[in-house]
Amino acid sequence: MTSWTDFTAGAPRISAIFTRRHAATGKLCLLATLRADGSPRISPIEPRVFEDRLWLIGMPDTTKFHDLHRDPRFCLHTATVDTQVGDGDAKLFGTVADVRDTDLHQRFAQDLFDDIGLDLRGGTFDHFYEAHPTGASSVEIVDGHMEVGIWKPGQDERVVRRT
């Protein structure tokens, strides 16, 4: 499985666009999952990078986490507000793994409290999903041309320039 660190090393351009857009939207992204009937679901989520790993954590007992429990595949898209994608746009594709490490959960809760004041310290997490990218793409306008970044594990990141 590919880690967040592997992704950022293998796809520096796409990860930079993802990180920039993630920060610009207050950490808001859109998460695509698969419903029980196979149809897609889009849900807002605020993924967090913690201890060099990307986490998809949120309000317990929500349908998006039921979806991931049943089928770990996802697509994570930076929230696009500019139709001209002047600041870029990125998508991550992958799978999640539910990490059952209570010490990690408490370190995460402390970090969350220190960062935004949300106090989940001492609580338990129903699901604690680590994201493992299996691919990524980005769009960026450079010198008036669209540049599409493409990455898969084990391959070099590449850019296709559209004129």
UniProtKB/TrEMBL annotation:
Domain Pyridoxamine 5'-phosphate oxidase N-terminal: 27-111
UniProt GO MF annotations: coenzyme F420 binding; oxidoreductase activity, acting on the CH-CH group of donors
SUPFAM superfamilies associated with the record: FMN-binding split barrel
UniProtKB keywords: Oxidoreductase
A Pfam family that the UniProt record links to this protein: PNPOx_N
InterPro entries, per database record: F420H2_bilvrd_red/Heme_oxyg, Pyridox_Oxase_N, Split_barrel_FMN-bd
Gene Ontology, cellular component aspect: cytosol
PANTHER family attached to this UniProt entry: HEME OXYGENASE HI_0854-RELATED
Protein's recorded name: Pyridoxamine 5'-phosphate oxidase family protein
Organism: Pseudonocardia petroleophila
UniProt lineage: Bacteria, Bacillati, Actinomycetota, Actinomycetes, Pseudonocardiales
